[in-house]
Amino acid sequence: MKRLLSGNEALARAAWEAGAVVGAGYPGTPSTEILEVFAPYPDVYAEWSPNEKVALDVAIGAAYAGRRAFATMKHVGLNVAADSFWSVAMTGIEAGLVVVTADDPGMHSSQNEQDNRHFARWARVPCLDPTDSQDTHDLMVAAFDISERFDVPVLLRTTTRVCHTSSPVEVGEVRRVTPTPGSYVRNTAKYDMAPANARQRRPLLEDRIAALSEFAETFAGNVVTTRDRTLGIITSGVAYHYAREVFPDASTLKLGMVYPLPRRLIADFAAGVDTLIVMEELDPFVEDQLRLMGIPLYQPPQPPAYPQTKSIFPVIGELDPTSVQRAAVAAGLLPGPGPADRPAPEPGARHTLPLVSVAALDLAPRPPTLCPGCPHRSSFYLLHKLGVPVNGDIGCYTLGMAKPLDALHTAGCMGASIAVAHGAVQAGDTERHVAVIGDSTFFHSGIPALVNVLYNRSNVVTIVMDNRTTGMTGHQENPGSGHTLQRQETVELDIELVVRALGFPPDRVVTIPSYDVKALEKQLKAWLKVDGPAVLITKQECALLPATKATYLPLAVKDNCNGCTICFRIGCPAILHSDALDERTQRPLAVIDPVLCTGCEICAQVCPRDAIEFRAEAMAHG
Amino acid sequence: MVESPRPAKVDIVLVGVGGQGTILASNILADLGMRIGYDVKKAEVHGMSQRGGSVISHVRWGAEVNSPIIATGAADLLVAVEQLEAGRYAGLLRPGGTALVNEFTIEPITVITGGAHYPSRDEIESAYAVPARRLLWVPGAAVATELGNKHVANIVLLGALSRLLPAVPEQDWVDAIERQVKPSHRELNRRAFEIGRSDAHVPGPGV
């Protein structure tokens, strides 16, 4: 029976069926659920590694040891793991290795929109690009076989819309039994990439990719479906489904493998249709290759100007049926829209979609915000008040940039905060810099940068915001949280001890509870007055963790509120303007939404009139 | 009782604010569609958008569903668990389609501290005027509060939605909800569904 599975669930299932013994990764939207779903399967080892490079090295280690393995990460994670990716592209493996990259077209939860299919071409490894959950399942199973047959890591590239769309999947019921290798392979010519060995391996990469191109000619993942021959569409990834939606009658070549491409299959498909187009999301990855092959593609009336090479569909953002149709109309592939109010198609009818234009209301945006009770809020309130430049990092606390907190001025990539602050200081910036990094990001790549602050002698004040979990991606364990991905108890790395061990002066490393606004303010002010580096660890469980939820106690605004608005400066979604006005100032009084309030007391501490209850008072009136 | 013919396809958009249960509601709808014999796709986005941001799920039922995303102006039904979000995504609903809107407001931070305007009910209704679509208000939040659990407004809305899909037997709805919620919450969710289904404000059928 078919099961309703997301792309990520289907991928985890396929890894288990294919006999993967080890799965390692670092959480990152949209990839996170893959390992969470894989971890409980029987007879597997799964881990959250401290970062993507470690994760890929772990998977490589398993594959060198003759066990099928895979690593998962979001697209930017492959940048972190790129060194390992290239290394294993050189060495090959003993047992199947799949590198899963989950790209994020549209940047739903990401800082850039890189198209990781380029990594495959760059490193001469095959790239699979599934269209939906069934494809993800089938290609993941195939990936391990391809990996072993060609002695190559396989890059399985998925995207947000594939990862997080659920559809029915026919799964296999049996796990592949892999013979356990007798002993560890000692083959330095293959696995020790000293230059002399690397030079010997180098030509093999070119031979291998040529052999893979031949394999692609008959690979079951590359599917030709002949319908009307007027229009042929070469497509991959989720774009295949937009092609089917907008051009239901067109013939299609669905490329399950986008690198290397099957030349003859493509040439034959091209010869069999009157007009040929490529439909793919993000970069013209397939389109550019077809042009190099000399395949005649449809030329729109306005071809793109150098350096753009994508001819019909947008290069920026996610595609969807509406954007695909608009682009097709603009390129002269479809007739223009009728009147905006023309009737909708008959239910179930398969023809051109309506292009409805609706007068858009100018509605208030609803950006994500720090949650009510978020332990990061107090630090950002203070940093805003202190007016210092703040170099930030990747996590929930990136939201400290939003108004009214407005207290985070850079946030580029994982682990950047501390070194970016250090660089500003060493460049001679006269303002004192504060770096802000979360606990999981500290373990990911913050530690080397903190070593650098000490070693190369800058005066950066680092705040490690330890909320005891990996927050933004949905509460994954990390080296400081005391549990592994497979729910085993383990050592809880103590951030303060780690920092002290690096050699920071004893009086320059302090841990303060995150909700204690006064203590945080006193410490930050003291450190900003004296020269030299310091590390403040703010510690409090994320407000969405079950342990914190059990302590929720809504606070109330008292009668002496005069609408001074200071509590609004903490940017808590639970503090609202009431309808009542202060008699004297005519300003709206504050009111706290008891459904949203957690009782963190940050607002109560910043209120200058003591007009917001503390927990003891709230408890007293029950 | 006359059996209603089953529609060839049903495209439903669910919108709300992170944490309101739009994903649970879309899980129920996807499960239901598959159990009653449709091909289905359910698309949603996780991560950053969950932190109190605007959220949207697409659920599609049909003989063969391709795009996971419903095109602009092509949704048959729209379920909004929050009023402002009903206005934001109005453009997805097709001419003649129906929106079910929870009578419930959550002020975005841009309204609380940024001076942005929270739209009135009239303004939200105006988003459905041209081309003409039907907007029905559902007291989901009030019913949920009466039932003692603010989190079941989404299920009240599914109850109202079920009136617009008369070809789907009530028991299939109840079964789909029970498969998706914790056993300890089944009774509460069944009550929420029943009250929503008996909502006199929703005349049905709509597809």
Would you kindly provide a written description of the structure presented here, covering whatever features stand out?
The complex is a heterodimer of chains A (622) and B (207). Chain A has 622 residues and is of the alpha/beta class. Chain A has 4 domains: 3-216, Thiamin diphosphate (ThDP)-binding fold, Pyr/PP domains (Rossmann fold, 3-Layer(aba) Sandwich), CATH 3.40.50.970; 223-330, Rossmann fold (3-Layer(aba) Sandwich), CATH 3.40.50; 377-549, Rossmann fold (3-Layer(aba) Sandwich); 566-620, no CATH class. Chain A contains 22 helices and 20 strands. Chain B has one domain (9-197): Pyruvate-ferredoxin Oxidoreductase, domain 3 (3-Layer(aba) Sandwich). Chain B is globular, with a radius of gyration of 16 Å. The interface between A and B is large, with 66 and 68 residues.
Keywords:
heterodimer; A: 622 residues; alpha/beta; Rossmann fold; seven-stranded mixed β-sheet; five-stranded parallel β-sheet; 22 helices; globular; B: 207 residues; Pyruvate-ferredoxin Oxidoreductase, domain 3; six-stranded mixed β-sheet; 6 strands; 34% helix
What's the CATH class of the largest domain in chain A, please?
Alpha Beta
Largest sheet of chain B: 6 strands, mixed
The CA-CA distance between the termini of chain B, in Å, is 19 Å
Number of helices of chain B: 8
Map the helices and strands:
The complex is a heterodimer of chains A (622) and B (207).
Chain A (H helix, E strand, L loop, with lengths): L2 E4 H11 L4 E4 L7 H6 L6 E4 L3 H13 L4 E6 H6 L1 H10 L5 E7 L13 H7 L3 E2 L4 H18 L3 E6 H4 L1 E5 L18 H4 L3 H22 L5 E4 L2 E8 L3 H8 L3 E6 L1 E3 L3 H9 L3 E5 L5 H9 L27 H10 L46 H10 L3 E2 L24 H11 L7 E5 H17 L5 E6 L28 H8 L6 E5 L3 H13 L4 E6 L6 H4 L25 E7 L6 E5 L9 H5 L8 H6 L2
Parallel strand pairs in A: 2-3, 2-4, 4-5, 5-7, 6-7, 10-11, 10-13, 14-15, 15-16, 16-18, 17-18
Antiparallel strand pairs in A: 1-8, 6-12, 9-11, 19-20
Helix pairs in contact in A: 1-7, 3-5, 15-19, 16-17
Chain B lengths: L8 E9 L4 H14 L3 E5 L10 E9 L12 E6 L2 H6 L4 E10 L6 H4 L8 H6 L7 E5 L1 H7 L6 H11 L6 H11 L5 H12 L10
Parallel strand pairs in B: 1-4, 4-5, 5-6
Antiparallel strand pairs in B: 1-3, 2-3
